[in-house]
């Protein structure tokens, strides 16, 4: 329909008021579902490797080690592998302190 509107901008279409209302309701419902999914996806925690964290933050390995010791950016350790929470990295990038979040005990 959008392509048709671009190709024929002067085209007139007749539609009943009931059909227009129903189309509006369907559009709102679809948009609501998409937004709810986007919100759910953004709340899902993701983890990145040490190298990815360094690239995202523009910092070196020494800085991540120091931040770990200070409790500023503490990774989740699985076996011998450190993973960093993207939510913590986002808070650092926004100027916040990731250690200030409650319930981060691992």
Written account of the structure:
The protein has helices at residues 2-7, 17-43, 50-57, 61-70, 86-93, and strands at residues 47-49, 76-78, 81-85. It is mainly alpha-helical. It folds into 2 domains: 14-44; 47-99. The protein has a 3-stranded antiparallel β-sheet with strand order 1-3-2. The longest helix has 27 residues, at 17-43. It starts with a helix and ends in a 13-residue tail after the last helix.
Short description, anyone?
The chain has 5 helices and 3 strands; from the N terminus they run ααβααββα. The chain is mainly alpha-helical. The chain starts with a helix and ends in a 13-residue tail after the last helix.
Q: Which helices and strands, and how do they pair?
A:
Blueprint: H1 2-7, H2 17-43, E1 47-49, H3 50-57, H4 61-70, E2 76-78, E3 81-85, H5 86-93
Antiparallel strand pairs: 1-3, 2-3
The average pLDDT is 87
CA radius of gyration is 24 Å
Per DSSP E runs of 2 or more residues, the count of β-strands stands at 3
Strand content: 5-15%
Give the SSE order as H and E letters.
Answer: HHEHHEEH
Number of helical elements: 5
Structural class: mainly alpha
How many domains make up the 3D coordinates?
A: 2
In terms of per-residue confidence, which ranges show pLDDT below 50 for 5 or more consecutive residues? 102-106
**Main pleated-sheet profile:** 3 strands, antiparallel
Shape: elongated
How far apart are the first and last residues' alpha carbons, in Å? Answer: 52 Å
Q: Walk across the major sheet and give the strand order.
A: 1-3-2
- The helix content is 55-70%
